[in-house]
Amino acid sequence: MSSAALSSADIRQQVEALGEWFQNLDLKGVATAPRHYLGDYPANKWRRIGPALPARLDGLSVLDIGCNAGFHALECKRRGARRVLGIDADARYLAQARFAAAVLNLEVAFEHRSVYALAELDERFDYVFFLGLIYHLRYPLYALDLAARLTRRRLVFQTMLRGSAQVAPPAPDYDFWDRSPFRRPEFPKLYFIERSYAGDPTNWWIPNRAAAEAMLRSAGLEPVAHPEPETWICAPTGRAGYVWERELAGTL
User: Fold this and answer.
1) Residue 93: its pLDDT value, please?
2) From CA 164, how far away is CA 121, in angstroms rounded?
3) Residue ranges in the chain whose pLDDT is less than 50
4) Number of domains in the chain
5) Angle of helix 8-17 relative to helix 91-104, nearest 10 degrees?
6) Domain containing 40: what range?
7) What 3-state class would DSSP assign to 4?
8) How remote is the C-alpha of 91 from its chain's centroid?
9) Distance, CA of 165 to CA of 207 (rounded, Å)
10) Are 203 and 135 in contact (CB under 8 A)?
């Protein structure tokens, strides 16, 4: 049955068959997660992030890392992006994303791929989305390095934040015997979750704001816009402070 022939009842039945949805999508009047604990998520965040991005993406390519049910990938396709690729390690989310794209008649590619396999992608993308992902990763900076390497124009980064919202310029160096910087609320901190957070055992590292911005800069990404408290739009600088490429090549 083509998507045009699907009734609201057909869509609702398939939405339920695909299991619990984390993203609330509007599939021709059928909401996929109408009782989401974060409200109309992620549309409520997109209403602030979307205006900070080009209204049209014609001719451009987009990579949505950890795409879940495809909300952001689908929004970019609506803006005319030439190629949109969504990747996720969860097969259920990918099945939801493919169904949503079919219902909305939007041509988006979805692949089952780990963020750590980004090095296998032999292309760069104009816009890369890295949203709601870093706190789920045991190796967050490695993943961010890989994503930055694939970014041609902008990387859109969003993370849950905890701790202080204060930020101060980093010192060029810190004295070994001086422990006072680590007691300051504006010092970059990653909070490690050993067991589970909010009922989710995949929540590993939660940064404060200073750490989030420091990690972006360390990966060679310069924040150029901050459209809402948890989101940064970044330009690649080509000045990443990592050596993982040499490590991967076995030269260290």
Assistant:
1) 98
2) 36
3) 1, 243, 251-252
4) 1
5) 170
6) 3-163+185-248
7) helix
8) 17
9) 10
10) yes
For residue 5, what pLDDT is reported? 75
- Residue 102, CB-side half-sphere exposure with 13 Å CA sphere: 15
Q: Is the pTM of this model over 0.85?
A: yes
Long-range contacts of 199-202 (CB under 8 A, 24+ apart): 202/136
Q: Is 59 among the domain residues?
A: yes
Cβ neighbours for 105, distance < 8 A, ≥ 6 positions apart:
3, 4
What is the C-alpha to C-alpha distance for residues 199 and 31, in angstroms, rounded to an integer?
Answer: 24
User: Residue 90: which CATH number?
Assistant: 3.40.50.150
Q: Measured between alpha carbons, how far is 86 from 131 in angstroms, rounded to an integer?
A: 12
**Is 171 part of a structural domain of the chain?**
no
The C-alpha R_g of the chain, in whole angstroms, comes to: 19
Burial of 244 (0-12, 13-18, 19+ CB in 10 A): middle
Predicted local confidence at residue 176, as pLDDT: 97
The answer to whether residue 174 is domain-embedded is no
The one-letter amino acid code at 174 reads Y
Kindly state the tokens that stand for 152. 């041609």
Neighbour tally for 245: CB within 10 Å: 12
Q: DSSP per residue over 62-120, as a string?
A: EEEET-TT-HHHHHHHHTTBSEEEEEES-HHHHHHHHHHHHHHT---EEEE--GGGGGG
pLDDT for the residue numbered 247: 55
Q: Is the dihedral of CA 94, 205, 203, 45 positive or negative?
A: negative
